[in-house]
């Protein structure tokens, strides 16, 4: 009975920013659980390559090019996906960027606007478009990728714009959950710690970064993409059927100290 709650058989999921990292791991997890998964990314070639890799495992996978910062593009991609695959049951908003080491007093306008546009505006455009369709179809499930940075000030890097964008994601998650609960749409988020990817492995060669990133984590390590994907699978499945508006910390205990 209980393992069946994690099954996504018969479901269709769309994941943004899914060509690599957490997004790709999530596509792997959700498709292994039985869902048909559409990998979307700004890089169409990378999205197609990621889809081919999972298709080779016998999964139901497709890909699409999507710039989440363009609300009209979001609407067009949604229309294309639903025309080809039918209703979308699960939306995972994973697309995001991090630009660090930008002191607030010297931050240029484009940097602030770019981070907010991708991390917060883009997430809302996707929630609005897919959420409206979910209301019309009688329900759905949205999982947002937030960050522990929504609740702390990171050290040693200065990144007010990133922290603010993720704080917005967390409260938007709660707001939409409250608005759409009676529409049978659940909206939750995962708040990861630092995740080891090709872009973050450099910290192992930087003692100062290691001291803060890893040394200040009770579990004394960074996270791995599959560890976040597993939480997203839980939130996307009926195993979390009583949860909406929840922000699930997956941070190795970082926010405990």
Automatic annotation (TrEMBL):
Gene3D superfamilies in the record: NAD(P)-binding Rossmann-like Domain
Presence of the UniProt keyword Oxidoreductase in the record: yes
One Gene Ontology molecular-function label: oxidoreductase activity, acting on the CH-OH group of donors, NAD or NADP as acceptor
Oxidoreductase listed as a keyword: yes
Record-level GO BP terms: carbohydrate metabolic process
Keywords, alphabetical: Oxidoreductase
Highest taxon of source: Bacteria
Record-stated family: Belongs to the short-chain dehydrogenases/reductases (SDR) family.
PANTHER family referenced in this protein's UniProt entry, alphabetically: 3-OXOACYL-[ACYL-CARRIER-PROTEIN] REDUCTASE FABG, SHORT-CHAIN DEHYDROGENASES/REDUCTASES FAMILY MEMBER
Official protein name in the record: 3-oxoacyl-ACP reductase
Species this protein is from: Pararhizobium antarcticum
């Amino acid at each position: 009975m209980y393992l069946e709650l994690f099954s996504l058989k018969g479901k269709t999921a769309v994941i943004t920013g899914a060509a690599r990292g957490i997004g790709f791991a999530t596509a792997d997890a959700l498709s292994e659980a039985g869902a048909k998964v559409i990998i979307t990314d700004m890089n169409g070639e990378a999205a197609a390559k990621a889809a081919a890799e999972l298709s080779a495992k016998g999964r139901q996978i497709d890909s699409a090019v999507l710039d989440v910062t363009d609300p009209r593009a979001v609407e067009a991609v949604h229309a294309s996906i639903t025309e080809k695959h039918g209703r979308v049951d699960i939306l995972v908003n994973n697309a995001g960027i991090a630009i660090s080491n930008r002191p607030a007093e010297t931050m240029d306008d484009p940097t602030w606007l770019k981070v907010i546009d991708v991390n917060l505006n883009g997430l809302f455009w996707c929630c609005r478009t897919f959420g409206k369709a979910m209301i019309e179809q009688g329900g759905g499930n949205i999982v947002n990728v937030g960050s522990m940075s929504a609740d702390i000030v990171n050290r040693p890097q200065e990144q007010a714009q990133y922290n603010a964008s993720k704080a917005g994601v967390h409260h938007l998650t709660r707001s939409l959950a409250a608005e759409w609960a009676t529409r049978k749409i659940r909206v939750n988020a995962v708040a990861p710690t630092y995740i080891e990817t090709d872009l973050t492995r450099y910290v192992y060669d930087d003692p100062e970064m290691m001291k803060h990133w890893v040394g200040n984590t009770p579990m004394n390590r960074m996270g791995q993409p599959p560890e976040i994907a597993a939480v997203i699978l839980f939130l996307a499945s009926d195993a979390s059927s009583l949860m909406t508006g929840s922000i699930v910390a997956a941070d190795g205990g970082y926010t405990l100290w």
